[in-house]
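User: Fold this; tokens only.

Assistant: Input:
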Amino acid sequence: MNTQNNKGNSGKTAYLIIITIITIVCILAGVFWHIGGWFGRNGTSSIFGWKWHWNWSDSDPGDMNHETISLDDFDTIDIDLAIGEVVIKEGSKFSLTMDFPEKYMPEYSVSNGNLKITHRKAMNVGFSNMRNDDYKVELEVPKGVDFDLVKVNCSLGDIRINGLSADKFDIDESLGEIKLDYITAKDIEVCNSMGSVNIRDAEAASLNGDLSMGDLRVESSKIDNVDCNNSMGSVSFEGQCEWLDIDNNMGDIRVDSKSDWKGTLECDMGSVKVNGENYGTKCKR
């Protein structure tokens, strides 16, 4: 019986490892296709300490440009970048700062209360051997503004949001870190293919998280309903909640909460701990 169990566990482990490798390859392929494609081009980039080389036929993107723009009022934020760090923070005014090569400076517009920032075309991410954090969009908004929607989609680069309030946060990352601090919302949706998600001092009615490879950490937060799926990486929640539904394939689950929450915590490979007590691979309340 033990031999059969060991064989079953070994088979399951091998299966999950194979799926993980396939996931990594697909994620990287999708990221680089989005930001410009591999075929018939030439360039170099460094990600997580790894060097990536491919061919490009694009012309020189030009020198790095730094632009600071004053914006009209808006209550919806929609950012879609191929590459670059995105920072949204509270300040004293509506202001946009962008650092990109001249040829690939993002376009922006404010219309009917909607701010839209997007790339015109594929990015030559490695032409000048710069790190991806040399490309940056920084958005400043006045303190106390309640937004209808904050939507950010980035293929390659970190996303950091601090101090905002919105009906909904919709954050989608392919390769990079998502960091949300001191935010207030009805709904928070985060999706990250490869990279961590860190949420601190947040207050929301619901959090929906979908990660392929990376840790999800929620600290000092009050979120009524938490629903999270992770393929590979740890998931931890610390704070107040009413409902927790966490499914993790490869990684531990940790919950520290004094709330009388209901729900299910389950992992295939890893352990579940609630307030320091070990529940094996599943805890249902």
